[in-house]
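fwd from M.: "can u put these together and see what the complex looks like"

so here's what she sent:
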Amino acid sequence: YNHFPRHLKWKNNIVTFRIVNYTPDLRKSDVDRAIRTALNVWSDATPLRFKKLYYGTADIMISFGRKEHGDHNPFDGPNGLLAHAYPPGQGIGGDTHFDEDEHWSKDSSAYNLFIVAAHELGHALGMSHSTDSGALMYPIYSYATGYPLAEDDVKGIQALYGPNPDHKKIKPKPDAPQKCDPTLSFDAATELRGETIIFKDKFYWRLHPQMHEPELTLIKSTWPSIPNKVDAAYENPEKDQVIIFSGIRMWALNGYNLVEGYPKYIHKLGLPKSVRKLDAAVHIKDKGKTLLFHEEEYWSYDEASGTMDSGYPRSIENDFPGMDDEVDAAVYHYGFLYFFHDHTQYEYSYTSRKVIRVLRTNFILGC
Amino acid sequence: HSSLAGPLLGTEKDNRLLAEKYLRRFYGLPVGLQSQKRTAADFKSKLQEMQRFFKLEVTGNLDDNTLDVMTQARCGVPDMGE
């Protein structure tokens, strides 16, 4: 997290706000609710209390405007700049402006007003931008559901104002995973149209052969309809679909979109009802089979016939000599299976039927 | 808005102008008449600051990853400075 220079903050714990005008994109009550909820996010974590004014000058004056709107800090039309706010202080200090050239919504269909308002009000209280891509105060917009503050945001605001004296329980989002953490393990991995996607907590890394640095993003900001925790995933390139598993359900994605008819239960694949979640999944393109891993066993699913192959489940350790007995994630490239378990990665050759290299899990992330 | 795709990147000149505008607004890249050498040095230094902030590869070069970040919808408050 960061603060503004001189750690600007409100001296008084009672801060006034006024909504000067409203966007026509939403009902007035929706705007009021978005702003009030955004303020509550910060007051839950601090001793700050917010009082609404309906006329006159408040500490935080909230308004919607487009292009040059009176502060010599113009907006830029649709997209690009979404909003800005000024750090605590007299006059324009604390004031929060939203770009009326954006389309504002209360869901993921356009720029979510609550999320942007929570971010901007963070500035109005003294928070500058965070370098943590999972934090609310990260400068780039991303849609997410659930509690918006990460631990980073909570630490930052409490460094200015202290904790909430009512000790109200807040459960911040985890900070973004660190790719070069030597103990890093993965939740799931899959190919997606030539890129490799690795899931960890509420995030995913995107690896492209021509990109030196993996890109870390919140799962919900790309796929709002899938859960925050992914157990397993695989790509079926013939159908141009990625199948995501979480608990006993699975989702099929075609690019950004959810395929109609999903989510479905994983047991539709032929898995026994005793299997309550998968550990990993990988599609072997050359054979048209998808391997589904659960604890020490795995199944083989024939994509063409849509049925489980007979003779399964089988033991992971027996069929993949050199591997651990459990798998967290797996991907398949050019005849090699890459298994990930805890912080270790195993490169398994399908032709020679053995593990030929053992590496750290995060080697794939460039560490 | 479920896609975060930015607009298509243009020519090298367009990209340079986009980057300069971005760095001026968010990283305090100096404006005004300076020597070419000084301008280039400032640009590289501010670009590296931006790459460091966004945990990109810090090269001082305007690569595709850096441009991609610069085209994403964001808050108008500077990342650095007052």
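replying to her w this: Chain B has a mean pLDDT of 83.
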